Amino acid sequence: MFNDFKLVDDRPVYVQLKDYLKEMIMKGHLLEHQKLPSTRELSKLLSISRNTVLNAYADLEQEGIIYAVKGKGNFVGKVTTLKTPSIELNWKERLNKATLLADELDLIRQDIHWKKGMISFNSVAPEEKLFDVENFKRAFLTRMSMEGDIVLNYGYAKGYKPLIEYLLHYMEIKGVDISNKDILITNGFTEGLDILISSLAKKSGRVLCENPTHHAALKLFRLHGLEIQGIDMQDDGIDIDQVEKSLLEKDFDFAYLIPSYHNPTGIVTSSEKRNAIIQLFSKHQIPIVEDGFNEELRYSGSHLAPLMTFIGAGNSIVYISSFSKILFPGLRVGWILADKQLIHCLESMKRARTIHTSTLDQAVLYQYLQDGYFEKYLKKARSVYKKKYELARQACKQYISFKRMTGDGGLHLFIELEEGINARILLEKCYKKGVVFYPGDVFYTNGGGSNTFRLGFSRLQDEDIVRGIQIIGDTLKNDMGS
Ligand SMILES: Cc1ncc(COP(=O)(O)O)c(C=O)c1O
């Protein structure tokens, strides 16, 4: 007995001993009223100090797991562990349709699994080596010393007030009229969209969006049972004639659009088109959910204002965003900016579902933003990504014979091959040569896009970007005759 007690480095020894003894008692290896070794014996046996054993025994006694008898020692107390015969349930049978669908649509599970050492163009996450960890630590310490007690307690469902104020001002600087609007803080963009869809009445049960579009959004639309009407993308944004036709033919509960550095095509909707979009949807009284996720990743050209700026004091746009692509996606902090009354109701939905987003995370993010680190970091990140973007574009032009390449900025490019060339077959062949990318069909609303793929370059070294694209191009040429 006790010979399987193994110590790990970074945990107090008395806690490890306490946990070990507790487990032995709970599992029935030490029986009720059994005498435990004396503190002297056990410290000798395990080569630990006597004080450590004393501390462990004291904690166990306080928890009522052991008891001491003066002059006799320590004994195992009464532990009731009710053991009933175990049964095997079939959980799969008990899952609802949406969960089974979520499982089926879970790209992470279905991805071709890349191995270490491969060149992966799959990710469109930020490059973590760029993360400004030192200043984030500083922001953490500052906020904790100012109000650690407050941020560790329950907070408001709507979000951490200073962050909301900051973001309202941030959106105002972008040109948005914030009068009659408010913000709800969410766990990233994705939860924001989920809360919104969960809150809207299903009238037509239809959503209109760009085709292709963000896979996570498509997944949510499907899980919520919405019928999806995808509209083709042109080089300057959604095909407005097709939108007009669809709006005349059918009703929609809302439209979902990504006007800047669209995922997956990377296209920036022109200002003329932004204007036309607003006119059309306003005429048909259909709300737009604007995804602002990539707005900050502009490398050149003039600034294009969010769609929300076009509606002035109007309330037909729900703007959802996060700093996931430019700051720290692991923080899971995003926001919904919308009509005040709508936010009031979404706040109740948020409270009902998750109480609130971590106040600590919001508070540290606020401090980081407030201290001006974001602007500095953004400058650095933009210049690094711009270089990678230009390199990737240039390499694609040089090595890949594509029909169309799009991507006006952001962290990825989108390639359309000649009709009939299957990007999944290309992927299989490239995988054998150590290169992976995202086949574009997963972003399509209607099963199209078999000849497309997305190249995320943000987390790759320059030489890997070029080498990977060259391998894709050579494979296309040599193995697929393109
Ligand atoms: C179109 C789009 N919107 C939003 C996001 C960010 O989502 P989240 O804030 O939940 O990480 C992404 C991330 O890839 C995206 O591609």
From TrEMBL:
UniProt keyword annotation of Transcription regulation present: yes
Entry annotated with the keyword Signal: no
One Pfam family, short name: Aminotran_1_2
One Gene Ontology molecular-function label: transaminase activity
PROSITE patterns: HTH_GNTR
Keywords (A to Z) from UniProt: Aminotransferase, DNA-binding, Pyridoxal phosphate, Transcription, Transcription regulation, Transferase
InterPro entries (UniProt xref): Aminotransferase_I/II_large, HTH_trans_reg/aminotransferase, PyrdxlP-dep_Trfase, PyrdxlP-dep_Trfase_major, PyrdxlP-dep_Trfase_small, Tscrpt_reg_HTH_GntR, WH-like_DNA-bd_sf, WH_DNA-bd_sf
Domain HTH gntR-type: 11-79
Classification via SMART domains: HTH_GNTR
CC cofactor: pyridoxal 5'-phosphate
Listed SUPFAM superfamilies: PLP-dependent transferases, Winged helix' DNA-binding domain
Family, as annotated: In the C-terminal section; belongs to the class-I pyridoxal-phosphate-dependent aminotransferase family.
Alphabetized PANTHER family for the sequence: HTH-TYPE TRANSCRIPTIONAL REGULATORY PROTEIN GABR
Name of this chain's protein: PLP-dependent aminotransferase family protein
Organism field: Lysinibacillus xylanilyticus
Record lineage: Bacteria, Bacillati, Bacillota, Bacilli, Bacillales
